[in-house]
Specification:
Blueprint (H helix, E strand, L loop, with lengths): L21 E13 L2 E14 L2 E4 L14 H13 L3 E2 L6 E2 L6 E4 L4 H17 L3 E4 L6 E2 L6 E7 L6 E10 L2 E4 L1 H10 L3 H5 L6 E4 L4 E5 L1 H12 L2 E2 L5 E4 L4 H11 L5 E5 L1 H12 L18 H15 L4 E3 L7 H14 L7 E5 L4 H11 L5 E3 L5 H5 L7 E5 H6 L1 H5 L2 E7 L11 H7 L2 E8 L8 H11 L7 H14 L3 H11 L3 E2 L13 E8 L3 H25 L5 H16 L16 H15 L4 E5 L2 H13 L5 E3 L7 H8 L5 E5 H4 L10 E4 L6 H8 L11 E8 L3 H11 L3 H4 L13 H7 L5
Parallel strand pairs: 1-7, 8-13, 9-16, 17-22, 17-23, 18-20, 18-21, 19-20, 21-22, 24-29, 25-27, 25-28, 26-27, 28-29
Antiparallel strand pairs: 1-2, 1-5, 2-3, 2-6, 4-6, 9-10, 10-11, 10-15, 12-13, 14-15
Helix pairs in contact: 5-6, 6-7, 8-9, 9-10, 15-16, 16-17, 18-19
């Protein structure tokens, strides 16, 4: 369409020139005959007003001798109309207008094109100084752009966790409900993308008799896309869970893009909540708790700020940071902030893996000693359940949350935190059902792997933290899983990302590398249980008695063999009972640390990591190798018995295996393995310098990625006690098993008693 031509305005002609004229366009329905057929079309009558004297377009100059007509201006006006798409009927053969009209807007009755002319051409004519009139019975009139849209949001009295939406516009003093017409367009449109690609300037949405709301196709696509994601009741009304309040922000953006004002009414707090969630937390919000015994890194402060933001918006979310980025610490800092702000009037419930209960207790004690923490695990947990309300934090496990569901259901929690939340990715599981029934103001899931196999796992987690946000499982499958997983629909993937964006925070190690030190060390404490725990205690009591007897008879200096033997056996039990050469260990086949290692390796491989596993026990590496083969995980091994040392090194560096098992003695020094970015110390070496040297096989010049070093220790055992002693006594690093030194040198009798104390 060519641009409108400029039209001379009143008073622009010089003295003695023709009189200024004002074009007058009258829009009406006219009957014309084309090729003998009678048609009703949208047409325009064109006149020119010369200071009150109206001259019909096409009238010869001789017929108006007393008017000094402006011929060029009249010709220019005609060109303006034709530039806007109007058709000069005098140019059509076999067309009889009866003299009533001069131009056809269109020869068909395309409502969208006709409303487009009304909406866009008529304002241009008015802007050029034309007078424009529309016949009262003209059937393709449009609502003026200055008329506002009205969006009304109300909480659902029958479903407090839902809101309803009405969308209307005032026409001739009456409120017209827009939703029926919009939903009708939505239902009759097979593809919103195709709708947006139409060459029409607008889509005409009916808003009453002879009146239409013109909406640009792309803006209508955005609007309908939001409405499609909401839910309709049998009456056609729209609604959604409160957790989907962000849809109101999306709706507001789509309505704003229509070019007309929007007025919100009803329960505006729901709308404000949606906008707050969509915009995210304020970057200046304070997040440092006074009682936190830790310094948060920048990205961790952002994480705590986000958790506080979710709480303020009364909604749940998933903290999906990579393993090792401090999800536990961020959660503890968040809980402590709630306590210090006086909002922690009900306890927080942590649900985690059985092996991590002790780890959570230790982390709370270390970073937030001012919080009262109670474990709902082990003997006496039912008695502790009765005291739950007296504590700030309670910790239970996924198996127990089902067994204790009735007792837990009697309480309301400030927040339910699901640690390692991928453990409940099966929506049909008993733990998932029990957690779904817990009463809580907020829900938070922690998982570095919220999606391991398919999108259904993401739905399962959101079903726990924000029920209904992603619809039912079947709705989610048809709306997202099938289009994305089977058909690769990028727009649906973008829509899902946008849907979950306000409720999910994901930072990878690479994305925060600038804020991380080059090397991050993580101690993973693992609880011993069952027969393994009983074996440890049995050997510990016998060893402790033997060592004390030796010390009484020979003193510490003469008791080193007994001390070394006791420590060795206990460390072997911590690693795997199959290492211990005593009759009592033969029937013990379970190892908590062995199980944790295999899970950790699979998780790291799934994240694209390349892994070094160190142990001082070659036999332990053989057991790990058997487990990896059982899981179909290829690997190479280097021990003192490896005949060709370079062969496994080359195989790893060339990418033929992503896991390298290395004995500490054979590979603790002299290797350059910068293709690895994850180091796992299966059994901690007593001298931290030796362990650090092993880590440096990956962390050295040439390494391009952040290195993460995991140390696996049996919680409360001789391993953890040794690490605690190392922190208290720096000289202990050189005293126990130091190269060229005595293993027991520098140990006091009190130290020996502490090392051989019962499991904590």
């Amino acid at each position: 369409m060519s641009p409108p031509l400029p039209l001379p305005r009143a008073g622009s002609a010089p003295q003695g020139a023709p009189q200024p004229c004002v074009p007058v366009a009258t829009l009406a329905v006219a009957t014309v005959w084309v090729d003998g057929d009678e048609l009703e079309i949208a047409a325009i009558r064109l006149d020119f007003d010369y200071d009150g004297a109206v001259v019909r377009a096409g009238t010869r100059a001789a017929a108006t001798p007393r008017i000094r007509r402006d011929g060029p201006a009249e010709v220019g006006a005609r060109r303006v109309l034709e530039g806007l798409g109007a058709i000069d009927l005098s140019c059509l053969d076999d067309c009889d207008t009866g003299g009533a009209v001069d131009y056809a807007v269109r020869l068909d009755r395309d409502v969208h094109a006709l409303c487009g002319f009304s909406a866009y051409a008529l304002p241009q004519l008015t802007g050029l100084g034309w007078r424009v009139a529309v016949a009262p019975d003209y059937p393709w009139q449009t609502v003026a752009t200055e008329v506002p849209l009205a969006a009304t949001v109300e909480s659902d009295p029958e479903r407090p966790d839902w809101f309803s939406l009405e969308l209307g516009i005032d026409v001739d003093g009456h409120r017209v409900d827009l939703l029926p017409a919009l939903l009708n367009i939505l239902d009759s449109t097979s593809s919103l993308d195709q709708l947006a690609r139409t060459p029409r300037r607008c889509i005409a949405v009916p808003v009453g008799d002879k009146r239409y709301l013109p909406v640009p196709p792309e803006r209508l696509r955005l609007l309908l896309a939001v409405l499609r994601e909401m839910y309709r009741d049998k009456g056609g009304k729209l609604g959604a869970p409160i957790a989907r309040a962000t849809a109101l922000a999306e709706l507001g953006a789509a309505l704003h893009d229509t070019g007309r004002p929007v007025r919100w009414a009803g329960d505006t707090s729901v709308r404000d909540r949606g906008y707050d969630l969509a915009l995210g937390p304020k970057p200046t919000a304070p997040v440092i708790a006074a009682g936190l015994a830790a310094t948060l890194r920048g990205y961790q402060e952002d994480g705590v700020r986000w958790l506080q933001h979710l709480r303020a918006c009364a909604t749940g979310g998933i903290l999906a940071d990579d393993m090792g980025l401090g999800k536990t610490l961020q959660t503890i800092a968040h809980v402590l902030l709630e306590k210090e702000a006086g909002r922690l009037t009900q306890p927080v419930l942590i649900v985690t893996l059985t092996s991590l209960v002790g780890n959570w207790q230790r982390e709370f004690a270390k970073f937030a000693p001012g919080l009262s923490v109670i474990p709902l695990h082990g003997a006496g947990r039912h008695d502790r359940l009765a005291e739950l309300a007296k504590h700030d934090v309670a910790i239970t496990t996924y198996p127990l949350v089902w067994r204790d569901k009735e007792a837990l259901a009697a309480h309301r929690f400030h927040t339910v935190v699901l640690d390692e939340a991928h453990a409940v990715k099966n929506p049909d599981g008993l733990a998932h059902e029990a957690i779904r029934g817990l009463e809580a103001d907020n829900r938070l899931a922690l998982s570095g792997t919220p999606i391991e196999n398919h999108l259904g796992e993401l739905w399962a987690l959101f079903d726990l933290v924000n029920p209904g946000m992603l619809g039912t499982a079947e709705e989610f499958k048809s709306s997202f899983r099938v289009p994305i997983e089977l058909h690769g629909e990028g727009r649906r993937l973008d829509m899902l990302r946008e849907r979950v964006r306000p409720y999910l925070m994901r930072r990878t190690k690479e994305s925060v590398a600038k804020e991380l030190p080059p090397k991050t060390e993580i101690v993973r404490a693992i609880d011993l249980s069952g027969a393994q725990r009983e074996l440890y205690e049995g050997l510990r009591m016998a060893a402790h008695a033997e060592v004390r007897q030796q010390i009484r008879e020979r003193g510490i200096g003469g008791s080193q063999i007994a001390i070394l033997d006791a420590l060795l056996k206990l460390r072997q039990v911590c690693c795997d009972p199959r290492l211990v050469g005593v009759d009592a260990a033969r029937g013990v086949t379970d190892s908590a640390k062995y199980t944790m290692l295999l899970e950790l390796i699979q998780t790291q491989l799934g994240a694209g990591r390349r892994i070094l596993v160190f142990s001082q026990f070659a036999r332990m590496l053989a057991l790990i190798s058997e487990g990896l083969l059982g899981h179909g995980i290829g690997h190479v091994t280097l021990t003192g018995a490896t005949p060709d040392r370079q062969k496994p090194i080359d195989a790893f560096e060339k990418g033929r295996a992503d896991v390298f098992l290395i004995s500490l003695k054979a590979g603790g020094a002299g290797l350059n393995l910068t293709s690895a970015d994850t180091v796992i110390h299966y059994d901690p070496w007593w001298n931290p310098a030796v362990q650090a040297q092993a880590t440096d096989r990956a962390y050295r010049i040439g390494q391009q990625k952040p290195v993460f070093a995991f140390s696996l220790i049996a919680a409360g055992s001789v391993e953890e006690r040794m690490l605690r002693l190392q922190r208290k006594k720096k000289k202990l690093a050189d005293a126990i098993f130091a190269d060229g030194g005595s293993a027991a040198a520098g140990l006091s009798e009190h130290d020996i008693d502490d090392l051989l104390a019962p499991l904590g």
